[in-house]
Amino acid sequence: MTPSLLELRDVASGYGDLRVLHGISLTVAPGEVVALMGSNGAGKTTTLKTIVGLLRPMAGSVHFDGADISRTAPEELVSRGLVLCPEGRGMLRDLTVRQNLELGGYVISKDRRELESRLDEAFAAYPILRERESQLAGTLSGGQQQMLAIVRAMMSRPRLLLIDEASMGLSPVMAQGTFELIAQVNREQGTAILLVEQNVEALRLAHRALVLEKGQIVQEAAGAELDELTRRLQDVYLGTSP
């Protein structure tokens, strides 16, 4: 059995005295895409913040590559290969596309040659970003900003990429393009991905899916079970069935 790259063990977390997560456990294997689904307020973003050290577990532990990272600083986790692409894209709107990408590679910023090499790779892979290289990030379309956010996160070559609500605020066409980009990152670079979403289309690129309700994981699905889960989420959780 392949060891887990990420493992949460009975994690409780929240804000102040308010517990949002109530003892959740989950794993992500190397190269795996796991979708964490649920409605607003289910605890999805809290889960990601706890994984990357923006929140500390009230109970339980978080492990990355076999090490307990429950008390590890967020910036150190980036150096280890654990990166968050936050909800709302986290664009530095008054900086250019190139400057945003350079900040994504800050862990190698002292090696200017390597940084330039990664910038060249990013621009070659995503020509629209080269075309917009000197454009302020805040003037990009929503879909272009999401592309920039993901490519910026990939500048540090993470082993595990956490993506929070990649499709939020995007048209169906732009959302589909974003999901295709995520699948490409996983397929071509082998990056493991934990994808937090409400959009059930995310299930089409996931190897496994988890459903979070009121701070607890209530269902897990893989393979053929994903189709049934898609229908159930459309009908029960998200109300998006035709």
Question: What's this entry about, in short?
Answer:
This protein is an alpha/beta fold.
Walk me through this protein's architecture.
The protein is an alpha/beta fold and 242 residues long. It has one domain (6-237): P-loop containing nucleotide triphosphate hydrolases (Rossmann fold). The protein is built from 8 helices and 10 strands. A hairpin with a 2-residue loop joins strand 1 (6-15) and strand 2. Helix 3 (97-104) packs parallel to helix 6 and helix 6 (142-154) runs parallel beside helix 7 (172-189).
Keywords:
242 residues; alpha/beta; Rossmann fold; six-stranded mixed β-sheet; four-stranded antiparallel β-sheet; 10 strands; globular; disordered C terminus
What pattern of helices and strands is seen along the backbone?
EEEHEEHEHHHHEHEEEH
Strand fraction band? 25-35%
Shape: globular
CATH class: Alpha Beta
Q: How many domain regions? A: 1
In CATH, the architecture is 3-Layer(aba) Sandwich
How many strand units?
10
Q: Radius of gyration, rounded? A: 18 Å
Could you list the spans in which at least 5 consecutive residues all have pLDDT below 50? 238-242
Q: Give, in spatial order, the strands making up the sheet with the most strands.
A: 6-7-8-3-9-10
CATH homologous superfamily placement = P-loop containing nucleotide triphosphate hydrolases
How is the CATH topology named? Answer: Rossmann fold
Secondary-structure content class: alpha/beta
Total helical segments? 8
The average pLDDT score comes to: 89
